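Fold it.
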Amino acid sequence: MTKLIIVESPTKSKTIKKFLGKDYKVVSSLGHIRDLPAKELGVSIEENFKPKYVIPPKAKKIVKILTEEAKKAKTIILASDEDREGEAIAWHIAEILKKNLGAKEKSLTPFQRIVFHEITKSAIEEALKNPREIDLNLVNAQQARRILDRIVGYKLSPFLWKKVFRGLSAGRVQSVALRLIVEREREIEKFVPKEYWTIETILKNDKGKKIKALLIKKNGNLIKKLDIKNKEEAEEIIKDLKSAQFQVKSFEKKEIKRKPLPPFMTSTLQQTAFQKFRWPAKLTMKIAQDLYENGLCTYHRTDSLNLSKESLEKAAQFIKKNYGKNYLRQRKYKNKSKVAQEAHEAIRPTYPEKTPESLKKLTERHFKLYDLIWRRFIASQMSEAIFDDALLLIEARKTENLFYELKATGQILKFDGFLKVYPTKFEETELPSFQEGEKLKLIEILPRQHFTQPPSRYNDATLIKALEEKNIGRPSTYAPIIATIQERNYVVREKGKFKPTRIGFLVNDILTEHFPSIVDLNFTAKLEAELDEIAQGKRNWVEILKEFYEPFEKNLQQKYEEVKKQGIINEKTEEKCPQCGSNLIIRLGKFGEFYACSAFPQCNFTKPLKTEEPILCPQCQEGKILTKKTKKGKIFYGCSRYPDCNFALWSKPIMASCSQCGSIFIEEKGEKKCSNPKCPAKNEKIQK
């Protein structure tokens, strides 16, 4: 062996091996092999925020293997992912191996860095021909983000412990997402519905052609949504219409074209997968990573819409061969984001000619996501859909000074274009042709009462869209943000939408009042932009950390003095303690509200306040986890969709979506732990 390639994933390693000869050995680091220590700040503020990196216990075996393999190699090639996190992984590996190999061996073993956004033979060969050095600007941007998040977490969490109760935690970007959810919930709580009415009519001409038309104007003025406020106002208009003369004011028919959507980037893939499959962002990213590492799709963490010349040519060949030349319309897409990296690509199939149906070994989930990515990409290179669009305007005149206007619309598909591959919902309504001035007869009036609706709670798709629009977070952070605020019990899912818990309200209110910059949207977006500038080599990472830390630390010390302990509730109830007979009270803990004995600490009885909401099955993402019994009466927990889904657990599930792997959390011996035995998530004692 002369060349050692180090990647971060065993699956990626296995895929790359297929394309290389005997001169190469490919090994995996299993992700990060060095990080900040788990039980201390790990950052020396006085030494310009110097990080104290350690090798976690789980990585020590891997480091030993990498060192032994590196000793045999003449060249070490670092091939982790092309984003900041991947660059940092490559840098950490290089730093550890330099130290372990020693100066003499280090000089004989140069490090090369290669990147690629798809795992194909041509992409790997091209990357090997064009190695580069580790990009320290990207590494510094990752370090700055990591240190910022560590400072906020380690400094603010103890403050919450002292002023509220132990077990709470604060995060830099997660707290902003929580604020969005809390503010939306308060909008919903304050919302007062308003009544309004719409009026439709059914009309026909002398030849018996019928149409349904909506009232839109009165005396030339547009009738706005809330203008017809109640039944009395609606009946007054109905009375006018019953005695009005109806005739066609205009009839216009024109051809309209509808363009396909661009290929996916991370945020739009997560949004669409939620809309179509109800998948949480964490699951979408896991399936996308599997597709990437198996060489089926390009890199799944991207904010770029760029497409390679080769992919465009292959798509064009496929479309011409399978649908015909009239379906082909090649396009390049531009990014709206100023910080998107054009060198990266959109999410697309690595082999456009590989249809989803041709990939026989995919699981149901992998097929669904590959099918979605493939169709969106192929459709982006296809012709517009063409419709005949018709608009009929009708005048209803009662007197010379009192008249109304109504409209009817229709749309007929003439040429399906990209819709052949990527169908979307549209209502096809044929509107008969009418002549200007043609008289119409009123058949029926259809008044409808409506009430305005409160703003909808955020779901995965709408929260990611809001974060993206406000420039909060980056493609790699959307899924962890959503997972973390659920894992901390700051929000729960209700019918697929996020609702803040009492703890979520409490933490948000404390942070908003006393640490406004931490949850300020503009401040957080500014920090994101500064991290991008570090990555581009335009800013010094230490300077940005100083600008953040000094006012933050000053305010924190001030708040320790000013803020009184709060948030503890002791609501009395009439319910008696079964152990000592004292009244039970409602208290608040890390995992929500619970009953506790008022005689504590003499009596430590507690019990859940209410039955928890059913947990969504992590395997099928459709069923709910139910309590069941075996034939022998032993309790277990399984999916409501059995036998279609066979997910089951012996331990009691307590919440969904582990931030590390997306699995369910279970309760075992008073500890919250991930149900996935291979997950690195640490156990947590459950606070009573």
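The chain has a mean pLDDT of 89.
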